[in-house]
Amino acid sequence: MPDVVGAQVLRALRGEKDADEWIAHRAYTAGLRLATFSLSDPSLAQDVAQEVAIRVLAGLPKLRDADRFDAWTYRITAREIKRAAKNRQRLESREGAVQAVEVAHSPSFPESLGERDWLTRALAELSERQRLVLGLRYVFGLDDEEIGKAIGARRGTVRSLASRGIANLRKRAESEGESRAVAAEEKTQRSRVEAI
Predict the structure, then answer these.
(1) For 112-121, 143-152, 172-181, which range has the lowest pLDDT when averaged over its residues?
(2) Which residue has the higher pLDDT, 161 or 87?
(3) How large a percentage of the chain has pLDDT more than 90?
(4) 65 in helix, strand or coil?
(5) Distance (Å, whole) CA 161 – CA 81
(6) Which residues span the domain enclosing 31?
(7) Of the candidates 117, 134, 126, which has an alpha carbon nearest to the alpha carbon of residue 42?
(8) Which of 5, 74, 157, 172 has its CA 20 to 30 A from that of 130?
(9) Same structural domain, 76 and 119
(10) Is the CB of residue 51 less than 8 Å from the CB of residue 80?
(11) What distance in Å separates the CA atoms of residue 59 and residue 6, rounded to the nearest whole number?
(12) Alpha helices (H) along 40-127
């Protein structure tokens, strides 16, 4: 596959429009997959993916090795995810109090929490870097060295982030499993009491 990517990059550098479109689509798709995984917000992920595609096309003449296109795209994606997460955090801190009051008084509040996917909630509790590392590893299949290059970290740091992220997911799964078992037991006991 690197040969195809490298060839498309070279064609795009020569100004061939269909190669530009191919490059933009590949960058957008990679950005969207990783941003969706990392940010847990499809709308924000689309914004990040668009920005990745724009930055990739704009920076393509600066790419030194056409065969390193994917790693270069992942680095750009990682930076855009960090920027989007920081902007989201800044916005949420400004609007946090108002939103908390509005959500708490919303009639659909409990249902909206129940409809969320467990993995999305669990991933949201991980640090930004843990989500990014797990996304690059499990969504894109990168090894620790490639992830390190993409996010600007050493291989040991990548392993540590992945290990801690997975441990946190396991801990949540175990605690949620115990909570479900306790809730089921309580429900059984209530039905026994009601039957008497």
Answers:
(1) 112-121
(2) 161
(3) 34
(4) coil
(5) 17
(6) 1-105
(7) 117
(8) 5
(9) no
(10) yes
(11) 15
(12) 42-59, 69-104, 109-115, 118-124
